Amino acid sequence: MIPVPLLNNLNAPLVAQLDVNAINIELKAYIQQEIANGVKIAMEELAASIFNKKVDDATVKLGESMQEKFVQASSAFQ
């Protein structure tokens, strides 16, 4: 319960007791969901970045290997 000071139309002080348990539960669930979504997105981006780096590295190595084999084959014919 949170006490909230209020004034009525006669400017007499009133106090309302607000039960914020339901709001706290909803807020906690929302925060947990947003954190989970943020972590999921970050992990997906990291995984994609790692995958793309591995593919790029493999492509470079394949190109170098093919070039090396081509040079070896060319020198064998001469």
Task: Write up this protein.
This protein is of the alpha+beta class and 78 residues long. It has one domain. It is built from one helix and two strands. It has one helix at residues 21-77; strands spanning 2-7, 13-18. Strands 1-2 form a two-stranded antiparallel ribbon. The mean pLDDT is 90.
Summarize the helices and strands and which ones pair or pack.
Layout: E1 2-7, E2 13-18, H1 21-77
Descriptors:
rod-shaped, 15% strand, 78 residues, alpha+beta, two-stranded antiparallel ribbon, 1 helix
Largest sheet: 2 strands, antiparallel
Rg calculated over all Cα atoms: 33 Å
Summed up, the domain count is 1
Tertiary shape? rod-shaped
- Report the strand count: 2
Give the helix level as a range of percent: over 70%
Q: Write the element-wise H/E pattern from the N-terminal end onward.
A: EEH
Class based on secondary structure composition and strand pairing: alpha+beta
Cα-to-Cα separation, first versus last residue:
92 Å
Count the helices. How many? 1
Strand residues, percent: 15-25%
Low-confidence spans: pLDDT under 50, at least 5 residues? none
Mean pLDDT: 90
Strand order within the widest beta sheet: 1-2
